[in-house]
## 1
Amino acid sequence: MQKDSISTSGAGRFRHALQGILNLVAAVGTVWIFLLMLLIVADVIGRNFFQFPIIGVAEIAARSVVAIVFLLLPAAALNGSLIRADFLLMFMRRCSEKLVHLLDGLFTLIGALLFAAVAISAWPDTYGALQTSEFFGVRGVWTLPTFPFRLIVVMGAAATSFALLVSAIGSFDLGATRKTSSND
């Protein structure tokens, strides 16, 4: 629904550039999925055929899934594919185009506030992980610092909040544009 708000205006160029940056971040998440898949396959082959498992795969996979989600969320939020309510939108379009944009803007604004709350609430643990050199794994066998994974969650939530805020502004702007153009 947000795609029709992209125009040649300054706001449209900003949104397009932001989408490009967020798509690059999402591409990192996609490559990470592929590498994680290779690691898991190598662990399964090593474990079953050579009785030589790769140490730490379960821990890496557990942390990676969360990190990958927060790498992919901002791009999905900005391009409008984070939440799909096509049936509701189809029903509402029969009622009022302005109402559709108002509700879309309201829902994305609430989403922006929720993701901002996630980023803010995750920051103290992230900072604490940096200060205390927190790690996961088994000491003396295999460990990995938790700070980078926690930072991805904070930055991903903040970027998702910003993307949803940009989308909300676009929806409200479309609603206002439709309102003024329908009054002509």
## 2
Amino acid sequence: MMKLSKCLLFFLFGLTVFSQNKREAMVPAFFNQSFQVSQLTSPLNNSLGATYVGDGRVFFVSDKAGIPMKLGTKFNLWSVDLITEKLKRVSTKNLCEINVLKYNVSGITVDDSNSFMIAALNDESFNDFLAVSRMTLLHIDLSHGFSQCAVPPFVKLGYTYSQPFYDDKSEYLYFVSDMPGGVGGLDIYRVKKNGVNEWGEVESLNEINTPNNEVYPFVNEDGRIYYSTLTASSGYDVYMYDFDKRSVPVRLKSPVNTKVDDFNFIIISEKDAVVARSAGGAQATILYRLLAF
């Protein structure tokens, strides 16, 4: 009986050590503020894929039509000025396939120096009719004063690649894919940018990936990654993971998460953030602004 007790003691000690090593990371002070929540985009359209590009502007994609003003059927690139909150269609002239009418854009990311852009768009011309909804990534080199475009070498035919985010500090490109090597469904991957138009090996972020879908990665300047996971209780919820602490992912509280789908969370500044929301029965996906006061 004594031997059994000792074994049990060592087992419980092991569990305690493991749980200590996997404690939840502390939530940054940003989330301890009070926020005013307001709509950035209209509920008459679908708007998502938000990314901050500097100069007080957020780029996003929307099926909002230009002129005439009617509901669009194609997702194009738009911007919102965070000072005036006015929306404007972004010109994609000379940006390769982005400017081709048959393509939908699902999101972009731009490096801090504006030397290159990674865009996600549908690749129906590269797939058979069974895969018309798949997305691919397009590398757009802007360093020469004009665009040179190519599909990155790590992109494989037949799989979806979407929701890109480039972290200048670590020089990693994060994206979402259903390619093999993940945990299941849509998973988050990253790949190191080794040089001009040069990329390393793709890594699956199995620390945060689950058998459900993980979508919309965003890495803040402090190195923490924010993303959304499909949950059984409230649809998509926003989580935070601290690479340095190697802790368990933390589900963020209200007003970031609500009872509907919450995803595409990005931090603009120490007082400003944006999140996309879409209820199961909703007619549209809307971008919301969280402004601290």
## 3
Amino acid sequence: MKKLVRLAAAGVLAAATTVSVAQQQDAPIKIGYVSLERIIRESSAAKSAQDRIQQEFSRRDKDLQDMAARLKQTSEKLERDATVIAEGERLRRQRELADLDREFQRKQREFREDINQRRNEELATVIERANRVIRQIAEQERYDVIFQDAVHVSPRIDITEKVLRALNSAK
């Protein structure tokens, strides 16, 4: 008797699952698309991240610009004076110029690496926030799938503007 009840329960469960799957298959699939490039370019979160990076690195950028100007002045002075100074003095100045140029190149390379690292960190934060907003919209509006990369997208399924509004209002 217990086996018969279990078998009947299993049959009812299987039938309910089959009906549920069939109903889901008959429902239209809801697809969306979000341009992550636009989110990164236009969202207030991305713009404020860019402002933070600009502010954080502005002093180092100014220092590099000053160093480049000093390097240029030193090079021009050496060129002007090359014919009227002693050979030993000219060689000493050339070595100083080469040292200054190496230091400038090193600082410039470190600056680029540091700013790229910070930009990637900030970008990751913006993308993480955007993905949370996208998931929230997907759940609320019952999207089956939302793409972030596509060769062609119909404006009919593009929800980028909706995501931008939600992201900008979330602060």
